[in-house]
Design brief:
The chain has a domain of about 100 residues. It is extended and about 80 Å long. The longest helix has about 35 residues. The chain is mostly helical and about 150 residues long. This is Stage V sporulation protein AC.
């Protein structure tokens, strides 16, 4: 090892690095993401069957899926789903819920205000600020261009 030159060491290191399993990761992401979306579709169908209008069904589905993602994160289950499904678990709305709840849980020892509340908006804060800010800009543009009509 001591007498190895850079080229030999590079070859040695390349042999030791595990090869990524792209196809397996892609398939697992597809299956996990598809399963989460299937649960969302089942929630949507259930809400529709119970007589809610389209707007209420959309809102209700989002609320229930965020709750499920947050609840599973709190139980430590969503992290296991994420390890198996990778990006498939990160993309749906439940992944966003996980991204909000995880930092808050990590800092719960700091207390409710400086721990949970402060870290709860680590991810959500920029999203909410951008959403509110851009909706104000769109509202002003809408007001300016439709005022005469």
């Amino acid at each position: 090892m001591e007498n190895m030159n850079k080229k030999d060491y590079q070859k040695y290191a390349e042999k030791k690095i595990p090869k990524p399993t792209y196809l397996k990761n892609i398939i697992l992401a597809f299956l996990v993401g598809g399963a989460i979306c299937t649960v969302g579709q089942m929630v949507r169908a259930w809400l529709t069957k119970n007589g809610l209008d389209e707007k209420s069904v959309a809102s209700g589905t989002a609320i229930i899926m965020v709750f499920i993602g947050s609840f599973l994160t709190g139980l430590g289950v969503y992290d296991k789903i994420g390890k198996v499904g990778g990006a498939g678990a990160a993309v749906p709305i439940t992944g966003f819920a996980n991204a909000i709840v995880s930092p808050a849980m990590e800092f719960k020892t700091e207390g409710l205000i400086f721990g949970v509340a402060a870290k709860l908006f680590t991810i959500a804060g920029p999203v909410l600020v951008y959403g509110v800010g851009s909706s104000i800009v769109v509202g002003i543009l809408h007001l300016l261009f439709t005022r005469g009509r």
